[in-house]
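Most newcomers find our protein records easier to grasp once they have seen one. Each record describes a single protein and holds just a pair of labelled lines. A learned vocabulary of local backbone shapes supplies the integers on the structure line. Nothing more is needed to start thinking about how sequence determines fold. The record below serves as our worked example for the rest of this section.
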Amino acid sequence: MAEQIESIFISHAHRDEEYVKELVGLLTMMKVPEIICSSYPGYHIPNDVDIYEYLKKSLTGNSWVVFILSDHYYSSPACLNEMGACWILNNKYTAILTPNFDFKEIKGAINPNQLSFKLNDLDRLYEFLDTSSNVFNLEKTHGPRLVQICQQAICTINQIADDEKRNKDIVTGLIESVRPDPENSSKIQIGLRLINPEDHGVQIDLLKFELIDENGMEFTHTLRTSTKLYGKENKIVLYSLDIVDSDYQPYFRKTEKVDIRYSKDIW
């Protein structure tokens, strides 16, 4: 006789916590008795326990594992360790993909021949929740009502996916170095990594820097430029900026932010 399932363990990357929040909300609404989920308050792993011992105890044969698969998941060693542990323990599992993750990218211990689904698939999400009520012997939510609840969650999930895709497709900048300009003591030199995820070239038109050091001193500067990036280009550009009357100390850098304005460019 198969062992009674007692809990759901949601294996996911922390960067996908907004998706997981929606799933946890649905399972909580269904009154699933025990949900283990590291990123969600009230369901996370306790602070005073050894995380590996806790996972070993949680990932026993009576735990249903739900993998939230994404690019973030497969780039996380901790997630891949969880996946391997579940495979070794032969846990019952379900693979759910975030909306922007493709089925063909499934790999590792997940059986590609086992049916999986995307989190914004209404029919499959409904089926998953209905199955959970059977697995845990829960009182069933009336069909039309459950469909409505799923639709509401999917609206939020699609918005998260749209924001994720939009952020993935924009040119980004990361400040990698800040130091006094070696050739001019009245300037600071900023090493800015620029990443263009687009297939076409772009021109950086404006950069707005905001830097704060450990003493709370601020340095802000708006720079008009014509830096060009080819499609898929990733490079570091050095910018030399006038300090003017700022008391900012680059050797004590603390927080930094750069806003980028750019336009599509063909050359």
